[in-house]
Structure formats: structure tokens, C-alpha cells
């Protein structure tokens, strides 16, 4: 494998480009073995930068010809760059023509131009365009694109690129061509082409302003019946952005194309979004409610990038969160607004916070910790992280909290008024939001607020309450701190909006107590007068800031919050804290039996049987904190102990509440004709949890009825959610019927790649019993349907085991780590981006107890010892060992 040199790129070294590229005319002769690319550019020197050579990026290209103003010219190559020194010195525009070839069928990295199931696709973000042609591959160089595609007409009947189709026709030798012009200037990372045998679902719409648009969702011929939900999601996205932010669609044609080989979720190429099939294709027979929800949010996310990312883009890749944090915020708000009423919005908020706390908090506490706007990187692909995306979204959300919903919308309008068509920074964004709201807390505290962009680590807010009965006064003291992260030993105080309220012990909210306190000092005191008796504080309502809140809650206080808080997020949080307290106490005690007491079990029963609460909310409350989340609360982690204790808790919850679970299943399992809406998907989720619990309880009681019913359900289910939940209940309880069910499931769906991914993932993620998961995973590697080359399939088996099943992965015999190191190396030779993601599975090795810690270090060192590692994996493992 060939890799560029290991150079650290630093934000402070940013310099404007020495040349601008005004326009690009690309002509492709598409051939999987050898594609010819003619690139005609019109360039001009940037007069604001000292005259210097033009250095163009290129990777794995065969260079055939370079012409300047139609004439041959001298050039040299330096590493991966093409260097032109003798260019016209005047600042007049000149033409540069470069002719190269590349081999898409050999491109296993899935960056640049590649072939997936006989169809050509491109992926250019972040630095893939340089694998297509020599270019100034940086987001602050924006050009107009004209693209001509030529290919065999039979094999590649559909030829797509960005913008509008202006010409098409036949050529000699069974070939044809299409010419596309993009009316908008764009950075090269937003370039795309697609060529192959595809069909499209089409929809013509008329926007509020009267403009007509053609929407298309392109898929392989057999998949057309799975595109309705994606199209509906796209139409909903367009309507939402117009309504909430007055941002219209600026194109005549908007296309989505699905590919089964994709490194990430999806890509917002201008007018031609390319999606992982996982986030496009859905039918009730093959997709779960979670898939439906993900499709809605990813379609929204990529569509919203059309403004936040494409119309206004990033000056450099350190500013990635400018578009990603903001666009995640927008897609979260979109899903919340579509969910409808307050309780459904809260469910979405809880799900988002759960992702943040189980994935981003560990990242922020580990070796890869970086600010939302990083200061340096070796491989930018390693910085498409939960910090840049999810924490970045929280940083935008706090800006909305500090300016109000209307104020934030005004700020967005000012941002576009100032920066439309530009490549800008995170500072520019926050400045626009603040300037549009001059009397807001954000404007008052802006320089300090921006520490959220520059300081890594999860801040901790410790709260203490003091009640003075004589004075009827309650004083809340909030103290903030932030642990050190790599390269940042000391942190300065953050601006932290803490939404809170006070409840009396009987659950009644104290009138006038609800407020948002904005912390900016290390310590803040809040005084409440006229408080008749000792209150229960409900702190960080709605998770108003991405922090760890420490408050020494008693059980009684948590039970009050769980039963009565007006903030649904904190009701859920109280339940989680009750469970966490018990998990931590049991882990510390050394015992494993009966971690749960009657008070907890009664509270959970009350939630489960509650006449008013939504099923979706109940399901969230009754789901115990994950092993990963529990582990994060410990100084030293014995993963087997965490697993054993959590399993004991689950077993107890299953057994002690079995009649309630049976009741819940009977009440919720019939949801009528399949619709993926919030209410019916919530009912299915609760029925699914109930079945899982009933199968688990059956292990103890020897009951055969519920496993039998579950198997029947698995066979009869009218939709994938119910079918998969039943299958998972059998697998997770280790029931003998699981084997047969798994076989049937495979036979039923052997031609549905996305369903097979679920089949692999379920087995790799199964609850470990005596180390039985790893042998099963190894066996599945030999299954004819397994391949390392397809990222979805590799993730479904290997990541589900290494990254999502701690109880099975962390083995005292170190076999899980050996398996991990082998797969990282194997994947690295094929696809470094995917390999580097897998490499992150051992990020938190330093927290592990022995013998895990030592064995994990050895496994990482084994990977690091490989001489020709990609930059991607090298950066991850060397940071882990540092
Ligand atoms: N911009 C895309 C999205 O968030 C992600 C593309 C990342 N691709 C990559 N190779 N790093 O929607
Ligand atoms: Zn994005």
C-alpha cells in the first residue's frame, strides 16, 4: 500500500490559496479498468498572496499530459503534488489542461471514483477529488463545473453529475454521453458523478415561491419499491427548511442515489446526494422502525447541507463542525418537529443524548479527544467524529438556547446574508448568531462561549443545595471544572446554560422556580426565596448543555423526579440514575446477585403500568444504562464484572416484573397496519422490550409459553420491527429456538443485503455466555455471505462484536483483542478509513483492569508495529499508545 508522508496539518498554518480556479470542464471516458479524465481549468493568481508555484494535489493518478494555454509546459512532481513553476506571472487568467487516467475497479478505499456492483460512484469529501484529477483539493477554492460523461450505453444507461442536464446523445461504438452544468460554484469535495444501471422514483413539486423542482431517488432496478419513505422524507425536509428557516431549494433537480458500498452514511454533493443504501431503502418487510427514523434524519441531514455546507462552506477542514455540527442540529430539530407533541420530542431528545453520552463522552475522555474545532490532524478522515458532529450540534443548540428559537432563526438569516457563497469559519457563524441578537447572553459572553469550539473534554458541573428553613431560602451552588485532555492540561470556565426548576417533595413544582441559569464563572450561586420546605432540584432539564452533572441525589429525590418532574428528559434521567446507583454499588461490592431492590422495581412497575405515559418513553425508562455508559462512570473497569452485573439487573427486572411485562406485551403488541409514526413505533418498541424480558425470565422459570409465543411472533410478524424484535428476544435470551429462527431468517432474506447485515450484527452483538460469541463470530467470517470488502457487512459483523459488545469482546484470554488486531490490519490493506474506525474500539484501554489492560496494550502495539500502516490507522494507534 502506498501512502503519503505523515505530516501534521495545523489550523494556525492556514494560508489562502496562491491561485483561484474559476471554472472546470471535466470530460470522463468511463471504464472500470482505465478511466480517462480530461480536466480543463481556468485559473488566476490570487493577487493577495505572494507569487509562487502552483501545487496541485493528486493521488494514485497516471499523468499523461499538461498544457498551459494550449502549450506543453515543464512540471515536476513532489510527493503527491504536481508542481508548475513557470506559469504566467501576470494575474490574468490562464488555461490549464491536465489529462490523467485512473483505475476505478481497483479502488477499494471507496474514495474518489470507484465501482460498486457495476455502477460508478464518487466520494470526494474530504480529499477524494485528488484521486480523480489534479486539483487544489481544499474547500476554499470554489469553481463552476461543466461535466461531460461518456460511457458504454448498455452498461451505463444512466449518467449523472451535479446541476442540470444540458445535452445528451449517442456516440460511436455503442457509447453515449451526457453533459451537466452546475449553476452554483462549489468546492471540489461537493463534486459527484454516478453512471450505471439505475432506476428512479420521481416526484415533481412546486415550492412556496412557485418554483418547480424535479426530485429523483435512484436505486438498482429491484429496489424501486423501497424508495417511498426516502422520497417522503425528502419532501418533508424541503418543506421544513422553508418553514423553519425560510431556506428554499435552489436547484431545478435534486437527486439521491443509493450505493451498497459506502464508507459513511451519506454525502451532500450539490444536487446529487450519494447515500449508503442503509439510509435510503425501506419497506415494512425489510426495515425496522429505527431504520425508518434513520432514513428520515439522514435524508434531512444531507438535504439541509444544501444551505449549511454547500451555499456556505468551510474555509478549511478544521472548520468541519461549521457545517456538520450545525447540520446535525438541523436534522435533530427536523425529526423533533416531525415527531409532533412534547412527549415525542422528548423521546427524540433522549435518544440523541444517549448517543452523545455513550459515544462522544468517552471520545472526549480518551486519547482521540479533540476540540469541536480541532487544532491539528494527520488524517482528516479521522475527524469525522461524534465530537465534531454530535457535540458540535450541542454547541449550536446552546446558541439557540442563549438567543431563543426566534433569535436563532434571525441569526441564521444574518449568517446567510453575510456569507452566502463563501468559505468561512466557526467564528463567523457564532458571530452572526450573536450579532443578530445584540442583547442576548450569547452576545454578552461570546468570546468565552467560543471556548466550546477550542477546549476539548466534557465539563463537569457539581451542584450542591442548601435549604435554610427559617429564612425559607434555598441556595444552589454550581461549580464547573473540566478534566485535562491531550495537549490541554488547563481549561478555562465555559459558558453553560443550565435549565432547572425546583419540586417540593410531593412532586409539585415550586411556582416561579423554573429558569435557565447561565454559568460563566468557576462557581455560581442561585438563590430561591419563599421556598416553604426543602425542595428537590431538577437540574440540566432537557440536557441544556453537554456536561456531566454531579449532584448527590437520594433515592427519595430521584423517585420524586421520576414520578413528577414536568421535564420528561429529567424524568428519564432520574430512572437512569436510580439504575446506575445500583449498578455501581453492586460492582463495588463484589457481589452479583440481586442488584435491584423493591423501591427500584416498584418504580419501574409504576412507569410500565402508567396510564398516561407514552409507550416510547416507557421503553426508554425501562432500558438500563448500557455497559459502555456504566463503564464510563468507573475509574477502573472490569468489563466482565460490568457485564455480569448488568445482566443480573436485566434478569431481575425481567423476572420480578414478569406479569407486568406480559400485560405490557398484550397491551402494545397489536399496532394495526404498519406505519412508522412515533406512536405506533413506540408501541412496537415497548412490546419488543417486553418480549425480550419475558424470554429472559423464561430462562429462570423454565416457562415454555413465552419463548413459544415469541417464536410464533417471529414467524407471523407483518413487519421487520416485530419480526426482528422477536428474533432478538430469542437470541439474547440464549433460547434453544434461536438457532432455528436464525436459520429461517437467513433463508427468508438471503437476497436482502441490508437484512443480512442485521442477521450478522445480531449474532455478533449477542449477550455473551461463557465466551460463546467470539467463536460464533469467527465461524460467521467463513459464511459465504460474509465479505470484508463491503463496509456495511464488515461493520455488521466485526464492529458489532469489537465496538458494540463489550461483554463478549473483553476476554480474560485476550482472544477478542487478537481478533481485533488481525481485522484492523486486514481491513487497513483494503480500506484505511474503515480500518481506522475499527482501531478506535480500544480507545479506552487505559481504564481497563488487569489482565485486560496489559493485553489490550499489546494488541495495539502489535498493530502499531506494522511498518506500512495507513496514516489513518497510524494516527489512531499512536495516539492510543501516547
Ligand atoms: N459530509 C458527509 C455527511 O456528514 C460525510 C462525509 C464524510 N466522508 C468521509 N470520507 N470522511 O453527511
Ligand atoms: Zn453532514
Automatic annotation (TrEMBL):
Does the record carry Metal-binding as a key word?
yes
Name all Peptidase M1 membrane alanine aminopeptidase domain ranges. 230-440
Q: Which residues form the signal peptide?
A: none
The protein's superkingdom reads Bacteria
Q: Does the keyword Zinc apply?
A: yes
Cofactor(s) annotated in UniProt: Zn(2+)
Q: Which InterPro entries match?
A: Aminopeptidase_N-like_N, Aminopeptidase_N-like_N_sf, PepN_Ig-like_sf, Peptidase_M1, Peptidase_M1_dom, Peptidase_M1_pepN, Peptidase_M1_pepN_C, Peptidase_M1_pepN_C_sf
Keywords in UniProt for this one?
Aminopeptidase, Hydrolase, Metal-binding, Metalloprotease, Protease, Zinc
* Gene Ontology molecular-function annotations: alanyl aminopeptidase activity; metallopeptidase activity; zinc ion binding
According to the entry, every stretch annotated as the Peptidase M1 alanyl aminopeptidase C-terminal domain falls at 555-882
SUPFAM superfamilies referenced in this protein's UniProt entry, alphabetically: Leukotriene A4 hydrolase N-terminal domain (SSF63737), Metalloproteases ('zincins'), catalytic domain (SSF55486)
Q: Name one Pfam family in it.
A: DUF3458
Domain Aminopeptidase N-like N-terminal: residue ranges: 26-190
Family matches, as NCBIfam families: pepN_proteo
**Which named protein is this?**
Aminopeptidase N
Gene source species: Hylemonella gracilis ATCC 19624
Taxonomic path: Bacteria, Pseudomonadati, Pseudomonadota, Betaproteobacteria, Burkholderiales
Amino acid at each position: 500500500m502506498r501512502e503519503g508522508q505523515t505530516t501534521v496539518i495545523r489550523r494556525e498554518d492556514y494560508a489562502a490559496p496562491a491561485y483561484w480556479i474559476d471554472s472546470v470542464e471535466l470530460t470522463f471516458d468511463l471504464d472500470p479498468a482505465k478511466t480517462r479524465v480530461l480536466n480543463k481549468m481556468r485559473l488566476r493568481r490570487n493577487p493577495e498572496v505572494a507569487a509562487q508555484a502552483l501545487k496541485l494535489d493528486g493521488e494514485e493518478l497516471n499523468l499523461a499530459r499538461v498544457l498551459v494555454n494550449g502549450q506543453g509546459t515543464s512540471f515536476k512532481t513532489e510527493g503527491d503534488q504536481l508542481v508548475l513553476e513557470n506559469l504566467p506571472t501576470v494575474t490574468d487568467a490562464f488555461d490549464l489542461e491536465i489529462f490523467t487516467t485512473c483505475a476505478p475497479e481497483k479502488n477499494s478505499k471507496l474514495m474518489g471514483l470507484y465501482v460498486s456492483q457495476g455502477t460508478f460512484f464518487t466520494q470526494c469529501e474530504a480529499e477524494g477529488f485528488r484521486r480523480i484529477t489534479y486539483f487544489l483539493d481544499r474547500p476554499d477554492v470554489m469553481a463552476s463545473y461543466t461535466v461531460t460523461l461518456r460511457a458504454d450505453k448498455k452498461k451505463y444507461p444512466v449518467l449523472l453529475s451535479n446541476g442540470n442536464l444540458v445535452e445528451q446523445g449517442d456516440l460511436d461504438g455503442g457509447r453515449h454521453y451526457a453533459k451537466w452544468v452546475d449553476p452554483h460554484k462549489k468546492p471540489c469535495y461537493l463534486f459527484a458523478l454516478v453512471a450505471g444501471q439505475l432506476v428512479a422514483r420521481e416526484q415533481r413539486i412546486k415550492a412556496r415561491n412557485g418554483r418547480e423542482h424535479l426530485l429523483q431517488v435512484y436505486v438498482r432496478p429491484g429496489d424501486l419499491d423501497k424508495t417511498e419513505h426516502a422520497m417522503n422524507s425528502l419532501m418533508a425536509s424541503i418543506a421544513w427548511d422553508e418553514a423553519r428557516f425560510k431556506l428554499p431549494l435552489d436547484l431545478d433537480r435534486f437527486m439521491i442515489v443509493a450505493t451498497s458500498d459506502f464508507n459513511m452514511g451519506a454525502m451532500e454533493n450539490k444536487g446529487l446526494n450519494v447515500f449508503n443504501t442503509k439510509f435510503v431503502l425501506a419497506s415494512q418487510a425489510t426495515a425496522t422502525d429505527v431504520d425508518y427514523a434513520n432514513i428520515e434524519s439522514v435524508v434531512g441531514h444531507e438535504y439541509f447541507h444544501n444551505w449549511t455546507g454547500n451555499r456556505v462552506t468551510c474555509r478549511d477542514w478544521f472548520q468541519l463542525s461549521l457545517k456538520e455540527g450545525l447540520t446535525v442540529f438541523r436534522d435533530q430539530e427536523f425529526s423533533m418537529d416531525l415527531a409532533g407533541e412534547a412527549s415525542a420530542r422528548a423521546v427524540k431528545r433522549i435518544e440523541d443524548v444517549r448517543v452523545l453520552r455513550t459515544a462522544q463522552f468517552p471520545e472526549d475522555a480518551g486519547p482521540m479527544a479533540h476540540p469541536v474545532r480541532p487544532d491539528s490532524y494527520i488524517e482528516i478522515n479521522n475527524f469525522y467524529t461524534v465530537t465534531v458532529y454530535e457535540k458540535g450540534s450541542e454547541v449550536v443548540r446552546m446558541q439557540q438556547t442563549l438567543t431563543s428559537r426566534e433569535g436563532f432563526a434571525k441569526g441564521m438569516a444574518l449568517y446567510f446574508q453575510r456569507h452566502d457563497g463563501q468559505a468561512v469559519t466557526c467564528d463567523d457563524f457564532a458571530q452572526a448568531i450573536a450579532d443578530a441578537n445584540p442583547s442576548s447572553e450569547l452576545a454578552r459572553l461570546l468570546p468565552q462561549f467560543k471556548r466550546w469550539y477550542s477546549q476539548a473534554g466534557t465539563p463537569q458541573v457539581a451542584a450542591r443545595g442548601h435549604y435554610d428553613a427559617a429564612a425559607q431560602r434555598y441556595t444552589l451552588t454550581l461549580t464547573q471544572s473540566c478534566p485535562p485532555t491531550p495537549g490541554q492540561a488547563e481549561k478555562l470556565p465555559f459558558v453553560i446554560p443550565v435549565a432547572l426548576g425546583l419540586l417540593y417533595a410531593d412532586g409539585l413544582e415550586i411556582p416561579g422556580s423554573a429558569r435557565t441559569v447561565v454559568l460563566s464563572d468557576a462557581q455560581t450561586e442561585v438563590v430561591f426565596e419563599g421556598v416553604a420546605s426543602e425542595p428537590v432540584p431538577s437540574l440540566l432539564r432537557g440536557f441544556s448543555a453537554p456536561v456531566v452533572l454531579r449532584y448527590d441525589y437520594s433515592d427519595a429525590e430521584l423517585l420524586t423526579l421520576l414520578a413528577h418532574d414536568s421535564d420528561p428528559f429529567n424524568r428519564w434521567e432520574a430512572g437512569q440514575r436510580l439504575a446506575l446507583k445500583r449498578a455501581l454499588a453492586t460492582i463495588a461490592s463484589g457481589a452479583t446477585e440481586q442488584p435491584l431492590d423493591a423501591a427500584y422495581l416498584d418504580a419501574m412497575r409504576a412507569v410500565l403500568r402508567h396510564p398516561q405515559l407514552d409507550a416510547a418513553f416507557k421503553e426508554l425508562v425501562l432500558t438500563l444504562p448500557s455497559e459502555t455508559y456504566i463503564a464510563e462512570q468507573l475509574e477502573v473497569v472490569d468489563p466482565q464484572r460490568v457485564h455480569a452485573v448488568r445482566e443480573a439487573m436485566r434478569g431481575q427486572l425481567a423476572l420480578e416484573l414478569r406479569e407486568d411485562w406480559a400485560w405490557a406485551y398484550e397491551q402494545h403488541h397489536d399496532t394495526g397496519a404498519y406505519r412508522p409514526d412515533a406512536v405506533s413505533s413506540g408501541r412496537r418498541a415497548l412490546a419488543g422490550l417486553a418480549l425480550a424480558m419475558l424470554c429472559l425470565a423464561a430462562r429462570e422459570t423454565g416457562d415454555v409459553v413465552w419463548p413459544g409465543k415469541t417464536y410464533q411472533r417471529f414467524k407471523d410478524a407483518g413487519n421487520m420491527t416485530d419480526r426482528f424484535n422477536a428474533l432478538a428476544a430469542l437470541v439474547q435470551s440464549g433460547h434453544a429456538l434461536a438457532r432455528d429462527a436464525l436459520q429461517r431468517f437467513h433463508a427468508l432474506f438471503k437476497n436482502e443485503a441490508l437484512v443480512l447485515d442485521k442477521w450478522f450484527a445480531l449474532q455478533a452483538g449477542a449477550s455473551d455466555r461463557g465466551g460463546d460469541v467470539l467463536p460464533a463470530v469467527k465461524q460467521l467470517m467463513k459464511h459465504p455471505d460474509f465479505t470484508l470488502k463491503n463496509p456495511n457487512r464488515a461493520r455488521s459483523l466485526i464492529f458489532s462484536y469489537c465496538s458494540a459488545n463489550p461483554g463478549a469482546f473483553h476476554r480474560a484470554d485476550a482472544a477478542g483483542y487478537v481478533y481485533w488486531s488481525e481485522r484492523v490490519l486486514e481491513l487497513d490493506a483494503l480500506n484505511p478509513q474503515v480500518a481506522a474506525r475499527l482501531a478506535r474500539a480500544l480507545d479506552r484501554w487505559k481504564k481497563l483492569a488487569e489482565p485486560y489492560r496489559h493485553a489490550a496494550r499489546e494488541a495495539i502495539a502489535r498493530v502499531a508495529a506494522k511498518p506500512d500502516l495507513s496514516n489513518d490507522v497510524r494516527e489512531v494507534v499512536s495516539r492510543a499508545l501516547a
